[in-house]
Amino acid sequence: MSIKKYSSMIRAGILDALQFRLALIVTTVGNLLYLLLIYHLWKAVFASADSPVVNGMTFSDTMIYLVFASSLMNFMEMWVVWFMGRSIQSGEIACDLLRPISYRSWRFFDGIGENIVKFVTTFLPTAIVVFIVSKGAIKLGSNLLFFVFSAGLSLVINFYINFMVGTICMYTDTIWGINIMKVVIVELFSGATVPIAFFPDSIKQIVLLLPFQTIVNTPLQLLLHPEFSLMERFTMLAPQITWFVILFFVSDWFFNISLRRITVNGG
Amino acid sequence: MASPIIQLKNVTKEFKVLNRHEGLAGSIKDLFSQDYKIIRAVDNVSMDIMPGEIVGYLGPNGAGKSTTIKMMTGILKPSEGTIMCNGVVPYDKRTQNAQNIGVVFGQRSQLWWALPAIESFNILRDIYQIEEKKYKDMMNLYGSIVDMDALMHKPVRQMSLGQRTLCDILASFLHDPAVVFLDEPTIGLDVAMKSKIRELIKMLNKERNTTIILTTHDMGDVDALCQRIVIIDKGKMLFDDGIDKLTETFGAYRTLSLSLLSKKEKADEARMNELVQKVTDVLGSNISDKNAFTVSSRDDQIEILLDEKKTNVMKVLNYIQDESRIYDMHLNEISTESVIKKIYEGGLS
Question: I want to staple B77 with a disulfide (CB 3.0 to 4.6 A). Which of A193, B91, B270, B327 is the partner?
């Protein structure tokens, strides 16, 4: 019965997203333009390099990675920060605090339907096109299973990060700057714009310790490297699972102390 | 005697706000300021609300109404005092409390914006885990009160404000909560819609014995729905009793309307002000208690609000007739609205 609570909300989100079919088309076109841009950018990077393999990746490796990365980011895009910012400013958050579900779960299940729609309408078609165009460059097997599991975790980790950024709005009352900062940090350190392999070694060490790389880098490494052993795969998953657990608790804790500050001191 | 469903005991709520300074320099100073002042939004309020009551919770803007409602629903925690709602301390167990209450906050809709209302209702059914049979019964009850077919299949964003409010109220009663909070439910609605919504609230209260806390600025709502009203101003409770006790408590008021001008004379503003001044002077020189009357003008009429405990109508008429000719007169019982207006203005407390 309690699962129905959540599945019903997800269903509503899916219905909601499907109302705006034009928005889906615009997103897809925007994404294609972005891919065109990075194609030419990276072509120039490889043309100026001495060897066809840069940082262990060929041009086609890089392109496949980036196409996947951008459509992964695309499907995981969330409006949590905007939504929370707006409802905190307008006081509308009061309504959602009075639901019989915790606020974090409410936000998550309210938004996740849209991500599912985007997964089917943008990520899946892109993946299929890449498989066909790359003519079997990516072997499919158990790596697909690991990818799906990892991408699921990515989605939740991405949500927790967004939720925490949204919570900051309780202190600042403004969203614009914080959200821009979040977008830049996540895009860069997740490996969505530049593969982690291209980072200088010292920075790479730090980036690999941060939660952001588990959003894009981890699931894509698992998908694009079918040759990894089981041990290597679990080693990749370990930081992701750790971050999932940490953020699960921290985002809840941070929201609750922030909310208490509001409910005790008023706002 | 049944035990109260909501109980507030000496509830006080204080807010800490930054003392803001004016101008650019002031704003920059505010960035580093630690200069806070404490505002007491609700000051030592106690009340017991019984199951099935419709309580009108009134007060001027900024009186502390919303703050009290937010404490009763569990969004805010009182600085002092305790609240029990349906056996639960709302601010400690907000999510659990949410299962037992329904809320409509003014013009904010809690329905899914892009979806037809029926979808929202179905989601609410699952979220509040309403049994299928109960849900059907409720929908049948709704069907007997309003035309559900016309409402349910329209996306919420395409609805008129009235239809949306109607849906929001229906949604808030859907899980058959023990208490429903309605925060200005008729704000911005036309007369016909207002009366429709009042009918609906009344019916639902009667059918389900739901306790309703209603805040409003529309005395029509109060007259149509509430047996009991609570008035709050500047955080303090001014009145808590049956609506019929209101006039008793605050004096036996009646309004005397007089036409002091013949049909030919023009009743412009200057002339009316002159008359108000004249009548005030006449009454002032005859009646020692200045609180016994208030003189004002409306269109071409002079209106005198009288406290019959302190003076009486015949005397007042005599005083005026000595000075001026009275062409016409009406005597009206004071409306709830006027009493409350006087309370807000501080004339009666």
Answer: B91
A33 touches chain B (CB under 8 A): no
Burial code of A142-152, b = ≥16 C-beta within 10 A, e = fewer? Answer: ebeebbeebbe
Min Cα–Cα distance to chain B from A125, Å: 26
CA distance A165 to chain B (A): 21
The answer regarding whether domain B6-243 maps to CATH 3.40.50.300 reads yes
- Inter-chain residue contact B16 with A265, CB threshold 8 Å: yes
- pTM for the whole thing? 0.82
Positions in chain B whose pLDDT score sits under 50: 349
Q: Do A19 and B74 touch (CB under 8 A)?
A: no
pLDDT digits (tens, 9 = 90+) for B177-201: 999 999 988 888 889 889 999 999 9
Q: Where are the domains of chain B?
A: 6-243, 252-344
Task: State whether residue B127 sits within 8 Å of chain A by CB.
Answer: yes
Determine contact: B95 vs chain A, CB below 8 A. yes
Chain B nearest CA to A211, separation (Å): 30
Query: Side-chain half-sphere of B322: how many Cα atoms within 13 Å?
Result: 11
A9 contacts on B by Cβ (under 8 Å)? 123, 126-127
CATH architecture of B252-344: 2-Layer Sandwich (3.30)
Report ipTM for this prediction: 0.81
- Residue-wise pLDDT for B41-82, tens only, equals 899 999 999 999 999 999 888 888 888 999 999 888 899 999
